[in-house]
Amino acid sequence: IGNTVLHILVLQPNKTFACHMYSLILSYDRNKEGPGSLELIPNNEGLSPFKLAGVEGNTVMFQYLMQKRKQNLWSFGPLSTVLYDITEIDSWAEDQSFLELIVSTKKREARQILDLTPVKELVSLKWNMYGRPYFCFLALFYILYMVCFTMCCVYRPLKPRTDNRTSSRDNTVYVQKMLQESYVAYEDELRLVGELITVIGAVVILVLEIPDILRVGAAKYFGQTILGGPFHIIVITYACMILVTMVMRLTSTTGEVVPMSFALVLGWCNVMYFARGFQMLGPFTIMIQKMIFGDLMRFCWLMAVVILGFASAFYIIFQTENPENLGQFYNYPMSLFTTFELFLTIIDGPANYDVDLPFMYSVVYFAFAIIATLLMLNLLIAMMGDTHWRVAHEQDELWRAQVVATTVMLERKLPRCLWPRSGICGREFGLGDRWYLRIEDRVDPNKHKIMRYTEAFKVQDRDHYDKGSEKLETNGDTLCKKEMSALSLSRSTSRTSSHRGWEILRRNT
């Protein structure tokens, strides 16, 4: 019951009342430390009150709980060293990482916790010491891997075509070799080494990705843009295309160019995932993901309807015409592709001025140009501009969330020998087996004293000014004498007030 009340208090809107009640309930806890403590009992979702405060974005409760966990090591004047307990924060030994929970939640308030002590210092320590070097090395290794795969595709086994053409539009010159003919020469053996590297890399990708899908869940793993959800889809599809190409090569099945082309496009697009390691490029990957899976997906439904209708109309118009004079609409699939190019203004309106074009072509093309080019494309640009504006206001915290997600991912993937645990063990200071992060803080203890000095200067100047004004009012001298006395009074007042103010500073020092 007490643990349930603690979880409810974390969700209370009155945060001051919640903090006081939280302390009151813990004061009656008999097991204040150890696994039986109320603070360590998780709810049905596996969240302790501390983790729940982070997921809900309750910064007041989070800071309150962190103040209870900190240990003042020493202080000397304005300098102080504090040990913060990072037992539940550090993802090194946690199955359900606190950092991963924060970046995977949809609440923006939760991402603000990444800028609080000691989370900010812990993430910065992990990223600068281990995360950034490993991530840059992984990016370089992946680019070299993609270069190897691309060279294997460029020099894939082909042979000249031997059979006769059956159509005047058939333009095929080379065909794929059979398996027995593909690995004969020395160049083929060199290509075989690159192909083996490519296949091994695809298997490694699947082995690393599948456990995370089972642990986190497909919907959450692929749906969170900060966790790199779309890029996980891309890299898994790429690995599957590599395996499909390998099976087609081993069985001498024609048509390997289809999965090979998809693999090349997906593999090189996945290079954008490594832009999250740089503050200048990281937010742009978020923008691209939100535009593709938000604005562009909605727009594609409208575009498909328009293209389907106008492509059918163009095909019907040119169905009775000679395809040799105007071949852009000679069959229905070609009409769809040509209309798609017209929609994106990739090509101009196809026309052959040596022959007479149907009258309805001009009418339909006029309507298509108005709807597609002027209306729908400008609508897409406006939608993307709005998305860019929204993401640009959050780009700093989005990049920090990307860094946290990348750090947690690398910490889980790499062996423990390459990524030691961050922080200091509490046994060094007699604090048990908990782990702490040492943070040095600089606090100016004379802040209130400086405010008193400022008020002293202001009060003395105001008193002298009031006395001088009374003297000036009582004097019946001429205007010249008043001006001269005011000038001399202001000089003596400033000199006297400054002298007394500096005397206060010297005496307190």
UniProtKB/TrEMBL annotation:
<dbReference type="InterPro" id="IPR036770">
    <property type="entry name" value="Ankyrin_rpt-contain_sf"/>
</dbReference>
<dbReference type="InterPro" id="IPR008344">
    <property type="entry name" value="TRPV5/TRPV6"/>
</dbReference>
<protein>
    <submittedName>
        <fullName>TRPV5 protein</fullName>
    </submittedName>
</protein>
<keyword id="KW-0677">Repeat</keyword>
<feature type="transmembrane region" description="Helical">
    <location>
        <begin position="359"/>
        <end position="381"/>
    </location>
</feature>
<feature type="domain" description="Ion transport">
    <location>
        <begin position="135"/>
        <end position="394"/>
    </location>
</feature>
<dbReference type="GO" id="GO:0005262">
    <property type="term" value="F:calcium channel activity"/>
</dbReference>
<keyword id="KW-0472">Membrane</keyword>
<dbReference type="InterPro" id="IPR005821">
    <property type="entry name" value="Ion_trans_dom"/>
</dbReference>
<keyword id="KW-0479">Metal-binding</keyword>
<dbReference type="InterPro" id="IPR024862">
    <property type="entry name" value="TRPV"/>
</dbReference>
<feature type="transmembrane region" description="Helical">
    <location>
        <begin position="257"/>
        <end position="275"/>
    </location>
</feature>
<dbReference type="InterPro" id="IPR008346">
    <property type="entry name" value="TRPV5"/>
</dbReference>
<feature type="transmembrane region" description="Helical">
    <location>
        <begin position="296"/>
        <end position="318"/>
    </location>
</feature>
<dbReference type="Pfam" id="PF00520">
    <property type="entry name" value="Ion_trans"/>
</dbReference>
<keyword id="KW-1133">Transmembrane helix</keyword>
<dbReference type="GO" id="GO:0046872">
    <property type="term" value="F:metal ion binding"/>
</dbReference>
<keyword id="KW-0597">Phosphoprotein</keyword>
<feature type="transmembrane region" description="Helical">
    <location>
        <begin position="192"/>
        <end position="210"/>
    </location>
</feature>
<feature type="transmembrane region" description="Helical">
    <location>
        <begin position="231"/>
        <end position="251"/>
    </location>
</feature>
<keyword id="KW-0812">Transmembrane</keyword>
<keyword id="KW-0040">ANK repeat</keyword>
<dbReference type="GO" id="GO:0005886">
    <property type="term" value="C:plasma membrane"/>
</dbReference>
<dbReference type="GO" id="GO:0098703">
    <property type="term" value="P:calcium ion import across plasma membrane"/>
</dbReference>
<feature type="transmembrane region" description="Helical">
    <location>
        <begin position="134"/>
        <end position="158"/>
    </location>
</feature>
